[in-house]
Specification:
Radius of gyration: 23 Å
Number of domains: 3
Shape: globular
Largest sheet: 9 strands, mixed
CATH architecture of the largest domain: 3-Layer(aba) Sandwich
Strand order of the largest sheet: 7-8-6-9-10-11-12-13-14
């Protein structure tokens, strides 16, 4: 596209929208930015964009004017009236990911899935870096692609975490390596059904060619096949539970049947991770290394010390023999079940006091029933979804409603005995009471620190 002189509207002024607007302005495009909210923070953002040449309109629900293209942020639903109106007028709709891709000057390695995206993206970027491959981690991980496109000419690959929201609005985006970690119910309040959610995730592969690679959890591949969505590229499968996969787990070993790699690759007992979900994240990173022709020895050196980041089954403290674990990143039922399976057992496997709840995303909390019945002594429920969760879980375990995290932590500590685990794993979004899952995790950690201080002072 000849960008100079084009009229483009940008909808949503979060990080992605701002980066998209700035990229467009650098191309000589006439940019009009819209946001349907109007806060002091947004006013500062709009003022900065205005200084760079954009026109900004805040607190509006309708978009007037003639535009050649609309670029929407991932958080903006494509079925909003303002977006639907643009589409009905023949305006092409892209997401920020698609816009950034148009200016990217290196191949992309893109990672999606219901859970584990950020962890795996970080591990892959670290692996590539240690193997002397130049890369930057961007996308849904926090840095929009548009913010790094100027650096991509110097890269061997850009490593992208991509969400279902971002994939909804691609057109030509084509990763040389696409990674699908898993599929479980999430964001059904936006996608409407599990099939629609799977279709959004499958768009990761739709523009790939036979020379590209699709690295897919075997169970997820079977879900794609049911909807006739098999990738058109070279497929590598992995699974922690199915030995039919190209990469699988045999006892504590990650074993490969890939050509040239037909042997055990990593011993999980020697790795700094817990849980089969993290074993699958490691397998996905291993497969990327294979596609990049990185030696097994280099991959083992890079990945054997990998560990999950903050808010992902993060050990916070041990107080009186009770472990406190922050898994605030668990914003759906599948992630909660993975966390429960990863927790250490005490004298009994049923040794967890669970703190859950928050903003519902249209999920089926009953699906966690068997796992919570097996591992959880009792649950403390907070946030908008707490009544629904109690109704779904009350037949499996005692549930108590609490007002906030501080109360939940205090009550769990009062009930817990040595060998127990107090686990924050909400299975919900955070936006009813917190700014983000990171904010929620920090509040949990502070509440635990407060308990520890009380213990030291004898209060």
């Amino acid at each position: 596209m000849d960008w100079a002189g084009k009229n483009v509207c940008v909808i949503g002024l979060g990080r992605s929208g701002v980066s998209a607007a700035e990229q467009l302005l650098q191309q000589g495009t006439t940019v009009t930015a819209f946001d349907n909210t109007d806060t002091s923070a947004l006013q500062q953002t709009a003022a900065a964009l205005t200084d760079k040449g954009a026109t900004c309109r805040l607190g509006v629900d309708e978009i007037s004017g003639a535009f050649d293209l609309a670029v929407i942020s991932p958080g903006v639903r494509s079925d909003l009236p303002m977006v639907a109106n643009l589409r009905s007028r023949g305006v092409q709709i892209w997401g920020e990911l698609e816009l950034g891709w148009r200016f990217t000057e290196c191949p992309a390695i893109a990672i999606t899935g219901t859970n584990g995206k950020t962890t795996t993206t970080e591990w892959i970027a670290s692996l590539l870096g240690q193997a002397q491959r130049r890369t930057i981690a961007a996308g849904n991980i926090g840095t929009p692609l548009c913010a790094v496109v100027s650096q991509t000419r110097e890269l061997d690959a850009v490593t992208l975490e991509v969400s279902s929201f971002q994939l909804e609005t691609i057109a030509d985006f084509r990763p040389a390596i696409g990674v699908l970690l898993n599929l479980a119910p999430d964001h059904l309040d936006r996608h409407g059904s599990m099939d629609n959610y799977i279709r959004a995730k499958a768009r990761l592969f739709e523009n790939q060619k036979p020379i590209d690679h699709a690295i897919v959890q075997l169970e997820a591949l079977r879900e794609l096949e049911k909807l006739d969505l098999s990738p058109p590229s070279k497929i590598i499968t992995f699974s922690a539970t199915d030995t039919a996969a190209d990469l699988h787990v045999d006892r504590s070993l990650i074993v490969s049947r890939l050509p040239g790699w037909t042997r055990p690759l990593l011993d999980l007992d020697e790795c700094a991770i817990d849980g089969l979900h993290n074993a699958e994240n490691l397998m996905a990173a291993l497969a990327v290394g294979y596609c990049q022709k990185i030696s097994v020895d280099e991959i083992k050196a890079a990945l054997s010390s990998s560990h999950a980041g903050p808010h992902r089954c993060e050990f916070v403290a041990e107080i009186g023999g009770v472990r406190f674990v922050n898994d605030s990143k668990a914003t759906n039922v599948h992630a909660l079940c993975s966390a429960l399976q990863a927790m250490p057992a005490g004298d009994s496997s049923k040794n967890i006091w669970l703190i859950a709840g928050g903003q519902d995303k249209g999920l089926d909390f009953l699906a966690a029933g068997p796992e919570i019945a097996r591992r959880v002594k009792g649950a403390y429920l907070l946030g908008e979804a707490r009544e629904q969760i109690r109704a779904d879980w009350t037949h499996f375990l005692p549930c108590e409603l609490v007002a906030n995290l501080v109360e939940a932590v205090a009550e769990a500590r009062r009930k817990a005995v040595p060998g127990d685990v107090v686990l924050l794993s909400p299975a919900c979004a955070s936006f009813d009471q917190f700014d983000s899952y990171e904010h929620r995790g920090r509040e949990f950690c502070q509440a635990v620190v407060g308990l520890n201080a009380d213990t030291r002072t004898g209060d």
